[in-house]
């Protein structure tokens, strides 16, 4: 793998994470627990889809095959998607949404804060914008974690279950492959091990404040770095890509 | 089952840009201060309408009674000497 | 009582706005609650047909635009609920009335959004019809309603454009896209005209609404405005309006048009539209699924208040 391929792979990963999480959040439109929260979730979906457009646009540019962000979003098959599995899991209930937002936003906060210093100007610029969005997502999900954790017995249980269910998908956030190795040397990517402890401390802090318990299981799922996903991704893509695939010559 | 709650009503005031006065933008529902600020942000500043937000629980706002309109506001109508245009200035006087 | 109503009427006649704490006849208050809550419910239920296409929007740009637009509808519902709340009804009560079928929402959302072209048709025709009505309502006599409409009209100005852009693009596209666009036009045109309501001569609440200046223009007048501006827009992109009787009337300077199928209109109002049940089931399902979240937020607030009291004591 050369540097160009590594950047392509890395930008795809960041773009796919945003795209797939954005897709899941967008699915919640008109399903929020209260109208205000419906709009909040949509705002987060928009942040993610916008970021996907930026990263996939950059990936397309780096690839140099005359493709667009849309080509990469709408014309790749599931085995060429590199988003983390946690992004594609369905939202079982509002607790699952909030738990995922807490775990992912904390990760994104530390990731993009570091990537702002990337020697790749595009990645640094997109990251600088992302940090502002993510700080808000993190505040939002931390506050809701506390409300649900401390709220009622029902909400406490749902929130704890949601965290327990998602926990085995968090290890993968920190996995690295050849692309990371190459780009870390170049000062473009960061060593994900370097933010793991901060992430854990932060998440644990919120969980404790919310009177919840940090899940103890250390078994972790893996696969996305190799394009191996849960069954859910295929369904996401078959919906998302339906028009592009059904009418391949059409412009929309 | 408990009766449904749609959380508490808050009034939202937005400052369009630094230095401007805060103006009433509308209302939102929220159960606590943090949620009120976040909801106000998500609902009333989607198009860059603001740089700062105030939220106030609606039941903390005290409004004047419309029946008191005469008593409260009419007496000031004839105090024309409070306005600079009331005064006659000698012709030719400048910067006053 | 009569004296009070006369005083109120003379305020209205003088062009004054009515504010929440002002005294107002019960009938005025009730009329507003009915109209504003129906308007709010329409915005909220209107999120569903378009929401049906978010996950399938054909480009990242289209997906963002559609999401932002539907989000606006939710926001507009929220502004209108808030404005209605100033009249002394809670949002919970309004939602309850909707779910029990006591309050209505716009008939148009009981039609299905079947293809991507429907997203174009909804934006262009449905929002286009709505905005004609809403512009007129900016001058409505109840202050909070008027202010909500001002804000809504300002935000909605992009909605119709995005719909028209979708239709225009499809009409420049492949044969399949053109057929899809025309098909959507055929299905949405008449329901869009029905959005303005029955003929003024058959409209049950209109005389009070005019007297109180809640409503400033008649249903037929607004419908005509919409038709007159839409015909040209449709010609520009090559779409045919599915009305054989549509014809320019030189003398009146308006388009003459065919009669609306009022049987269909009444059937949909009675709950027999293609999606009435689906829309209400969706609304009730997610309202109920959200109950534990709202209860948790409420319980959290109470716990925090208790703690603060203990500290302060």
Question: What does this molecule look like?
Answer:
The complex is a heterotrimer of chains A (252), B (96) and C (313). Chain A has a single domain (3-215, 225-246), classed as Ferritin, core subunit, four-helix bundle (Ferritin, Up-down Bundle), CATH 1.20.1260. Helices cover 68% and strands 0% of the residues of chain A. Chain A contains 11 helices and no strands. The two termini of chain A are 35 Å apart. Chain B is 18% helix and 23% strand. Chain B has helices spanning 33-44, 69-73; strands spanning 8-15, 23-30, 52-57. Chain B has a domain at 8-65: Phenylacetic acid degradation B (Ubiquitin-like (UB roll), Roll). Chain B contains 2 helices and 3 strands. The model of chain B has no long low-confidence stretch (mean pLDDT 92). By secondary structure, chain B is of the alpha+beta class. In chain B, a hairpin with a 7-residue loop joins strand 1 (8-15) and strand 2 (23-30). In chain C, helix 2 packs antiparallel against helix 4. Chain C is built from 13 helices and 2 strands; from the N terminus they run H-H-H-H-H-H-H-H-H-H-E-E-H-H-H. With 313 residues, chain C is mainly alpha-helical. At the A-C interface, helix 1, helix 2, helix 3, helix 6 and helix 7 of A face helix 3, helix 4, helix 7, helix 12 and helix 13 of C.
- Round the Cα radius of gyration of chain A to an integer and report it: 18 Å
Taking all Cα atoms into account, the compactness measure Rg of chain B is 21 Å
Low-confidence stretches of chain A: none
Summing up helix and strand content along with how strands pair, one would put the structural category of chain A as mainly alpha
User: What general form of chain B does the structure show?
Assistant: elongated
Oligomer: heterotrimer
> How do the SSEs of chain B run, as a string of H and E?
EEHEH
**Sheet of most strands of chain A:** none
Looking at this structure, what is the CATH superfamily of chain A? Ferritin, core subunit, four-helix bundle
- Average pLDDT value of chain B? 92
Task: Specify the number of helices of chain A.
Answer: 11
């Amino acid at each position: 793998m050369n540097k160009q391929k590594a950047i392509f792979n890395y930008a795809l990963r960041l773009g796919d994470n945003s795209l797939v999480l954005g897709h899941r959040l967008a699915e919640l439109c008109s399903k929020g627990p209260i109208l205000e929260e419906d709009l909040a979730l949509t705002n987060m979906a928009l942040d993610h889809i916008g970021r996907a457009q930026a990263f996939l646009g950059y990936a397309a540019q780096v690839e140099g095959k005359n493709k667009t962000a849309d080509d990469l979003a709408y014309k790749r098959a599931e085995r060429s998607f590199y988003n983390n599995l946690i992004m594609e899991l369905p939202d079982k209930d509002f607790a699952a949404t909030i738990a995922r937002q807490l775990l992912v936003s904390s990760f994104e906060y530390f990731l993009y804060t570091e990537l702002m210093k990337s020697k790749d100007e595009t990645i640094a610029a997109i990251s600088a914008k992302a940090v502002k969005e993510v700080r808000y997502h993190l505040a939002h999900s931390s506050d809701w974690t506390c409300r649900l954790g401390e709220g009622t017995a029902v909400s406490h249980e749902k929130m704890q279950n949601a965290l327990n269910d998602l926990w085995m998908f968090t290890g993968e956030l920190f996995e690295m492959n050849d692309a990371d190795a190459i780009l870390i040397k170049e000062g473009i990517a960061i060593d994900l091990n370097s933010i793991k402890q901060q992430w854990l401390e932060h998440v644990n802090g919120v969980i404790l404040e919310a009177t919840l318990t940090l899940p103890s299981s250390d078994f972790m799922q893996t696969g996305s770095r190799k394009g191996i996903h849960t069954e859910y991704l295929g369904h996401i893509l078959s919906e998302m890509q339906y028009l592009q695939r059904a009418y391949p010559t059409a412009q929309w | 089952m408990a009766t449904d709650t749609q959380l508490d009503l808050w009034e939202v005031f937005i400052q369009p840009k630094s230095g401007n006065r805060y103006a009433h933008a509308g209302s939102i529902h929220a159960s606590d201060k943090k949620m009120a600020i976040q909801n106000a942000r998500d609902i009333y500043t989607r198009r860059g309408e603001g740089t700062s937000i105030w939220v106030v629980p609606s039941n903390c706002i005290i409004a004047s009674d419309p029946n008191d309109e005469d008593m409260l506001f009419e007496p000031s109508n004839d105090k024309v000497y409070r306005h600079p245009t009331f005064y006659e200035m000698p012709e030719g006087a400048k910067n006053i | 009582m009569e004296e009070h109503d006369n005083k109120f009427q003379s305020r209205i006649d003088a062009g004054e706005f009515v504010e929440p704490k002002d005294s107002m006849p019960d009938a005025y208050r009730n009329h507003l609650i009915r109209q504003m809550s129906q308007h709010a419910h329409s915005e909220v239920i209107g999120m569903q047909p378009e929401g049906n296409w978010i996950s399938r929007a054909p480009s990242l740009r289209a997906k963002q635009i559609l999401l932002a637009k539907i989000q606006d509808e939710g926001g507009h519902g929220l502004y209108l609920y808030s404005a209605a709340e100033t009249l002394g009804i809670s949002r919970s009560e309004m939602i309850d009335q909707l779910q029990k079928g006591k309050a209505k929402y716009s008939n148009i959302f009981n039609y299905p959004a079947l293809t991507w072209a429907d997203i174009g048709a909804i934006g262009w025709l449905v929002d286009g019809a709505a905005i004609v009505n809403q512009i007129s309502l900016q001058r409505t006599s109840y202050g909070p309603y008027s202010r909500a409409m001002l804000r809504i009209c300002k935000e909605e100005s992009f909605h119709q454009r995005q719909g028209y852009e979708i239709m225009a693009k499809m009409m420049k596209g492949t044969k399949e896209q053109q057929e899809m666009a025309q098909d959507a036009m055929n299905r949405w045109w008449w329901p869009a005209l029905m959005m303005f309501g029955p003929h003024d001569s058959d409209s049950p609440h209109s005389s009070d609404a005019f007297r109180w200046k809640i409503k400033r223009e008649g249903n037929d007048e607004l419908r005509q405005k919409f038709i007159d501006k839409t015909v040209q827009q449709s010609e520009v992109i090559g779409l045919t309006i599915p009305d054989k009787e549509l014809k320019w009337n030189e003398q009146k300077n308006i388009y003459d048009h065919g009669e609306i199928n009022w049987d269909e209109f009444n059937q949909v109002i009675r709950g027999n539209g293609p999606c009435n049940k689906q829309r209400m089931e969706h609304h009730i399902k997610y309202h109920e699924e959200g109950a534990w979240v709202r209860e948790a937020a409420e319980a959290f607030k109470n716990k925090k208040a208790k703690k603060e009291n203990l500290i302060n004591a």
